[in-house]
SixA phosphatase family protein (Larkinella bovis), 167 residues
Amino acid sequence: MKYSLLLALFLGLASCSTSNVFIVRHAEKVSEADTSSLTRAGFERAQDLAERLEDERISLILTTPYRRTQQTAGPLAHQLNLPITSYPATPASAVVEQIHRAKGKNILVVGHSNTILDIVKGLGGQPGRTQIESGDFDNLFIVTLQKSLLGRSVRLREETYGQPTAP
């Protein structure tokens, strides 16, 4: 009886996990084309992102297959010596499932103005805004997913990062 209680406690603790998911839109872009690159300001913002996240123990980097999302994640991937893993831009549920399978990891997700809020919502967060404007490149959504013996919880923090873009 005593051993089965200890085993149950051990198994319960082993199933506990916390993931911090950092969700951003790609940095400033040259044009609306899918193959568009980042601007000089965009590359600077990507470096700012790497500096902001360097101590966050990121172990998985997810981007859409587009150049600008990969360029935004590139400095952090290089700094941490991590590969960039692609996910389909839509539906948001595809990347949400990928995030849930990576329980216990801290993850950077780089998406687009029309997808990052859906990703936040898919993870259970309730963002304070209803859309990302075309000139907004500095939003950082941090979703903490915690699974414990008492159940699951989701916390959302909204920040900005990087230097403001010159008009």
